[in-house]
Design brief:
Layout (H helix, E strand, L loop, with lengths): L1 E4 L5 H12 L4 E4 L7 E8 L2 H4 L7 E10 L1 E3 L8 E4 L7 H10 L2 E5 L8 E2 L2 E2 H6 L9 E14 L2 E9 L4 H12 L3 E11 L2 E2 L4 E2 H6 L7 H8 L2 E3 L2 H8 L13 E4 L5 E8 L2 E7 L6
Length: 283
């Protein structure tokens, strides 16, 4: 399911609502969105929950509003302001220079209130419990970082980045580079890998229309290159058996003649083995 998450809800709350709409406990999501964020949340239902672990989403796209001159405890609008500076004198040229320095392959320190786990606990939980959290920097790729407009000290931006990038951290680093501080006041996710917000529906839509956005067949084929297999090979893969290698690189979706995606497969030595069986023979 492709859900346009509303502001003010956690991703977990969205999952809870969909469990009620579909009458099943087997619901999960890929890629958490903070409560203040809106936009694309990819949700798996029933068998689709098992596919989420294999979902390829190497890049994501966001639109955001960054406010210069204010720092907050959470690096976004949900936190308390900890520092305020007059940022009206910051020029467009200075902003462009800092944005250029934050584009490409960079090292980014995730926000201390992120969902990253530290010793089994989410970082934001540790912060709420009064612990000081400092997450080590990690490599991310900012494919593009575009300024869409400026109104006073508010910048509207669009960011196309690798999975694992924190837009709050990007706003924080931009503010630090300019010497005035900054935080995120709005965030909207537009794409997750091959999935686009244009194919999504607001959460409320699914209450009256509990239907999938994509079948499991469509999802597998959207995320991976495909390999056509015969009916006999499809049956073998559905039973967890392996096929003869054929020079494939990386993971592929094995698709039967009738268009069904049977499994994700990958060459492992002298075997073309299953990574995930979407349609096991036992079902």
């Amino acid at each position: 399911m492709l859900v346009d998450k509303p502001r003010g809800m956690t991703s977990h709350s969205v999952v809870g609502a969909i469990r009620r709409y579909f009458g099943t406990k087997k619901v999960g999501h890929a890629g958490t969105l903070d409560p203040m964020a809106t936009g694309l949340l990819v949700v798996g239902v029933e068998r689709g929950t098992k596919f989420l672990a294999h979902l390829v989403a190497e890049t994501k796209t966001y639109e955001a509003t960054i406010r210069l001159g204010q720092e907050t405890t959470t690096e976004d609008a949900d936190g308390e302001i900890t520092r305020e500076v007059d940022a009206s004198g910051v020029t467009d040229e200075e902003i462009a220079r800092e944005v250029a320095g934050l584009t490409g392959d960079i090292m980014q320190r995730p926000s201390s209130v992120s969902a990253i786990k530290i010793n089994g606990k989410r970082a934001h939980q540790l912060v709420r419990e009064g612990e000081k959290v400092e997450i080590p920097p990690r490599p991310v790729t900012i494919h593009s970082f575009d300024i869409l407009g400026r109104e006073g000290t508010d910048l509207r931006v669009r960011v196309h980045c690798s999975s694992g990038t924190y837009i709050r951290a990007l706003a924080r680093n931009l503010g630090h580079g300019l010497g005035v501080g900054a935080h995120l006041v709005a965030l909207r996710r537009l794409t997750v890998g091959p999935f686009d917000i244009s194919r999504s529906h607001p959460l409320a839509h699914f209450e009256d229309h509990p239907e999938l956005s994509l079948t499991l067949d469509e999802a597998l084929q959207a995320c991976y290159p495909t390999l056509a297999v015969t009916d006999e090979e499809a049956q073998a893969l559905s039973e967890g058996k392996w096929l003869t290698p054929r020079g494939l690189k990386g993971t592929h979706a094995a698709v039967a003649p009738d268009g069904r995606a049977i499994a994700l497969i990958k060459e492992q030595g002298k075997r073309l083995a299953t990574v995930f069986v979407a349609r096991p023979s036992t079902l």
